[in-house]
Amino acid sequence: MKAAIYMRVSTPDQAEEGESLELQKERILEYIKAQNWKLFKIYEDAGLSGGSTKRPAFQELLKDTQNKLFDVVLVYKIDRLSRSIVDFFNTLQLFEKQGITFVSITQQFDTSTPTGRFAMSMLASFADFERSIGIERAKDSYLRRLKNGISSGVLPYGYKREDGKVVVVPEQAEKVKQLYDLVLQKISMREIARQTGISRDSVRFILSNPFYAGYLARKRDDNKKKIPELEWEFYSGKHEAIISYEKWKTVQDIRKNKKAVVRKKFTALFSRLIYCAKDKHNLTFQMKRNIPYYVCLPIYEGDTYCNRKLNEIDLEEKLLKTINKFLSLDLPHEKQKDYRDEIKTIERKIARVQELAENEILSIEQAREKIHKLQSEREKVLDKSKNRIDIEFVIERIKKVGQIYPHMTREEKALFWHILIKQIIVKSDRIHTLWTADLSASELRLKPLQTSKKVRLGGDEGI
Description:
- The protein is α/β, with parallel strands linked by helices and 463 residues long.
- The chain has four domains: 2-141, Rossmann fold, CATH 3.40.50; 159-261, Hect, E3 ligase catalytic domain fold, CATH 3.90.1750.20; 263-333 and 391-463, no CATH class; 334-390.
- Helix content is 49%, strand content 17%.
- The chain contains 14 helices and 17 strands.
- The two termini are 59 Å apart.
- The model is unreliable at 331-337 and 452-463 (pLDDT under 50).
């Protein structure tokens, strides 16, 4: 087995405690010789703390572990590898993943033995505990600093740290003031971003951040999930404000009102239903002068397209007329009676065969075969009867929905059409509609198709 040695001392004092690099090296080499292993390499960090993983030789050891250049790693004591339970456990997991054994020669810790594996499981529990404690301490520290008005982490645009204090950057502060003044003039975010040269996301962040008004806000909960702006908790900060709280609050009210009047997305009634038979892809939904259209445009670069346009209002009107025609058809109710008569006739035949078998006119095998055939015939007739009942039920439901259709929202109308229609296939001179109910396909006439030509790319509706 190829063996790697890792050695570390953090201070010269450790030499006096009997843990010098020379002593560690001597003892580990003796252990390797006793095991009849072959030395691969010695990794040595002198004068570095084990509380951090940022050690050159340790990082080199991890890199060579990823490449599995050795079979076992040896240390003099466990704390030579790391003084952090979490870091130590993560390193052992990496060794285990690569099939590498870890041995501490003075503490009888060997991950290839049952005792070593048990110790590993115990370390996992302690590592989780240490992580939890660390997280709780970090959270408590953050909340304590927040309540004391002290900023943590990266400072926002307009501020910098100087001699441990948060100070205003004058040139950037003027830009921040300009942003707030432009909002008060009811100028759009896009225009503000254009005038100031600041991205829209940055503009939105600056305008929503109470830090500029002299306050700190808790923006994430204990699970690190974002807290909605309206639920932020505010704490008076110890830094200098760039704008007044009154101005900041006025800007928030303006932003809130703008969000309230943002137009809702216009729902396409036949989204992903209309398919171009010529170019083999769905038509793209567009709005032109507040009129909804479906246009055959290329989905991907290089796609063919015919530029066929369908006015949604006209299509909706024509499909409603088609449905009304279906609903006005008289169903052949006498067929339902025929089905029932046919079922009764088959049942009488089954009873007759049973009677013949009882009187020993037919053998059991002959009777069984005839009854099986008659039962199959009855099942087929029952299926036909069920299909007819289903169609009647569907049509009755459609009639009821048709009465309230004019009063539906666009979302409800879109759902109605997606329930009724499988696909609308656009051909060169007609529209072929496939219905989900057991109704025959219908066709609508179209004007002759125009010749294809190359134009810009269209929408994203695929099959």
